[in-house]
Design a protein that fits this description.
It contains five helices and two strands; from the N terminus they run E-E-H-H-H-H-H. With 159 residues, it is an all-alpha fold.
Amino acid sequence: MAHCTKCGAAVADNAGFCAACGAAQSTGGQAPAAHNSAPGVPQTAMDENVAGALCYALGWVTGLIFYFIDKRPFVRFHAKQSIVVFGALHLLSIVFGMFFGISMLAGGWRGFSLGFGIFHLIQLVAFVLWIVLMIKAYQGEKFRLPVAADLADSIFGKS
């Protein structure tokens, strides 16, 4: 048996109004799930915070996917930020990975410590950012990384 959302009186499961106070009741006994979306944007089965967190799941790849398939501003913001942040970190990782490989061949162990350290520092920064950005997006925050969010806005336009 369902209860009135206004006065708490017992109402029938399929009642349109409460017999005690006359308040309108939702069908099915429960209020419909609220989705945060922009007006005119069709509802999807996935909440915005979940989609925002998934923008970061596989780095720039999922950011690119969600940028093209989801038009909600919150999700597009996180998709753009994911593309810029993890795309740049991916490119830096490749460059320093090549530097590390070349320094091993050219300089021996002298180049090993510098290239090795920078390469793994980039990997550590990427891992920490991945965790922080996924948590912030899941909490529903538009957490802007200072340089990356501005760069994403200039590349893709403001959302």
